[in-house]
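Handout, page 2. Input:
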Amino acid sequence: MSTGQAYTTGIINVIMQSPEWNSTAIFLTWDDWGGFYDHVVPPHVDENGYGLRVPGLVISPYAKKGYIDHQTLSFDAYTKFIEDDFLGGERIDPKTDQRPDMRPTVRENVPQLGDLTQDFDFNQSPRPPLILNPNPTTDLK
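Output:
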């Protein structure tokens, strides 16, 4: 596990030290093997439903410091953010661009799906990078 953490930290450090940092948003999420700790029933959005909650972090010079987002979000929220930001809200919908689509719904359009732009403050001065040690020491005494 520590190898993966060090690898991910190293990649984020490189991005933070790049000239692109001031226009970057990193969405870090991971699968915790099914969220067996979770006590919340997933919301119903269609016949597939949402799965158990998955943790995620927003890393950006414009991310709200210490902000905890309580919206209903899913992996679809990342796609929605990209479509809203770069496509002016147009949805990448395989049903309209001649690709087969097994999804019962275009999840980016589900009304209860939150909006990741709420995690940012684009009016604030960009925060400088926070470079972390990829291999921190631990005291597990």
